[in-house]
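We give its fold:
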Amino acid sequence: MNTINETNFQFPGQKSIYKGKVREVYNINDQLLVMIATDRLSAFDVILPRQIPFKGQILNQIATKMMNETVDVVPNWLLANPDENVAVGHLCEPFKVEMVIRGYMSGHAAREYKLGKRVLCGVTLAEGLKENDKFPIPIITPSTKAANGEHDEDISREAILSKGIVSEKDYVVLEDYTRKLFERGTEIAAKRGLILVDTKYEFGKTKEGKIVLIDEIHTPDSSRYFYADGYQERQNKGEAQKQLSKEFVRQWLIENGFQGQEGQQIPEMSDEKIIEISNRYIELFEQITGEKFVKASTENVMERIEKNVNAFLAN
């Protein structure tokens, strides 16, 4: 099955390419960004050696749907989707922080809590919390936006402002937008029988100085979901929550001795494991969107993308 690992297109008016962990972004005439969602898989800030069929299409289509369903509360960068793996939007200058918001004590927050930490990104956590307990009010725990191959780092609001990473005026907007998006995302998830546990948002500034949502939103790579049915019963019994997120990949890696630390070997993924992960992503798509996933043709995937993007730019 053809997957998308790396692209090296030359589009009309192309100025530069930025290659992120899973997306590749083309600057067109310093006006537009063409963002291609590859099938690369990253975990613990490391790009894994093998790609996952249809993963890029899944992330791109979830993000598009969620942007369309939140644009009335927070403006975003998106203009069009000329291809199943492509989003085109306004050129923006990204803020160098990721706005992480957590409604529950899960994932990274739970791992830090188990190590005895009671302050996360400047937010004090109460004693006596259990993994996956709901916070009284969602907490914002930002992280730095690391360069490729480096790890994102937790950072507090105070440190962001004191280091001048974001101005106070802009940061107030980022916090406000983050809470509004999480509230809407929680409502959307509830309609699907899901709980939006935690997620991250990235923002940028347009040439006109307008702050907008960029990149992905409410996808299984950027978010964690629980099934709402049975959540409280499982919590009361101290059982693991039934969840929808990329966490199953992280857990498999941990079980096989890899957490992205120096000297650790990435475990080999068999063809069966690759297909299993692909099927899990399709399940995630259908649960999160409530729609049937339709696989795009992968026969000549690079030609398809190039043709569709060129046709869009020509118009």
User: Anything to note?
Assistant: The CA atoms of residues 193 and 229 lie 7 Å apart. The radius of gyration is 19 Å. The longest strand covers residues 194-205.
